[in-house]
Amino acid sequence: MQHAGTLSDGRTHYPAAPFALVLGGGGAKGLAHIVVIEALDELGLRPQQIAGTSIGAIIGACYSAGMAGRDIRAYALDMLQVRPDILRRLLTTRVGRFADLIRTGLTNPMLIDPEKFLHVFLPPAVPLLLEDLMIPLTVVATDYYARLDIGYSEGLLIPAVAGSMAIPGALRPVVHGGRVLIDGGIINPVPVDKVSAPIVLAVDVLDGSSHDSMIDETVPAPWDALFGSVMLMMQVLSGVKLEAHRPTIHLRPPVEHFRVLDFLKVKDILATCDPIKDEVKRRLTRALESSPAELLEGPPD
């Protein structure tokens, strides 16, 4: 049985266990992925492979680069707050200017260039190439014209992840490898079909609630209506995908009361999801112990 060790650069090395981790899309709801990663760190294990869509691709890239869950949490808490320096950096990632809107009426001055965004905000630990990651990662994006999902596990990391997170209306589509890419969640919000392992842990942040039949006549604000509609579509698609490719563990963090753009509520999201650590450890340990002995490297004693 292998135990966690320390690399020459001070990072902790965990043995790879026979499971794959799937991190779904869902905007700010996907900050719940950090809590799941912390639970894996507490078990002293890392997956053999990871697949991620949108926010899941971003956090998956950080994790695959060797960052511990606690470090990803600290980085998110530092970046997702209203500070003058953060706002200035965010403004540099815009596609257009307010003057363009007045002159042409065609440019959304708040549209974000996702490649610029990642160049500015990704942690330094994340490499330029997907193949240089410590854990194999498949980034899932949608080919706008071919109308299918594309999985990237080699090549430039930033264009692939940028395409995976390019939510229509908020982030500009990405041209990469002869394709026009938009958010991977449009077709494959929880990409369980992109991994192959004895055990699959899928983290689905689209909707952790059981809806009742209460009628609500509140008219949503325009942005809420836009992103709420996208989430509704993703929920339906996720149900179909998960039915066809059932993961060993289907984890649904309690993020139903948060909105897609609630990134500034990072502390609340993490605090709300912290209790699921015990569930992650319990269910994954049980699954690993049920695997054939020759496949099991298991959690350390």
TrEMBL record:
<dbReference type="GO" id="GO:0016787">
    <property type="term" value="F:hydrolase activity"/>
</dbReference>
<dbReference type="Pfam" id="PF01734">
    <property type="entry name" value="Patatin"/>
</dbReference>
<keyword id="KW-0378">Hydrolase</keyword>
<dbReference type="InterPro" id="IPR016035">
    <property type="entry name" value="Acyl_Trfase/lysoPLipase"/>
</dbReference>
<keyword id="KW-0442">Lipid degradation</keyword>
<feature type="short sequence motif" description="GXSXG">
    <location>
        <begin position="52"/>
        <end position="56"/>
    </location>
</feature>
<protein>
    <submittedName>
        <fullName>Patatin-like phospholipase family protein</fullName>
    </submittedName>
</protein>
<dbReference type="GO" id="GO:0016042">
    <property type="term" value="P:lipid catabolic process"/>
</dbReference>
<feature type="active site" description="Proton acceptor">
    <location>
        <position position="183"/>
    </location>
</feature>
<feature type="short sequence motif" description="DGA/G">
    <location>
        <begin position="183"/>
        <end position="185"/>
    </location>
</feature>
<feature type="domain" description="PNPLA">
    <location>
        <begin position="21"/>
        <end position="196"/>
    </location>
</feature>
<feature type="active site" description="Nucleophile">
    <location>
        <position position="54"/>
    </location>
</feature>
<keyword id="KW-0443">Lipid metabolism</keyword>
<dbReference type="InterPro" id="IPR050301">
    <property type="entry name" value="NTE"/>
</dbReference>
<feature type="short sequence motif" description="GXGXXG">
    <location>
        <begin position="25"/>
        <end position="30"/>
    </location>
</feature>
<dbReference type="InterPro" id="IPR002641">
    <property type="entry name" value="PNPLA_dom"/>
</dbReference>
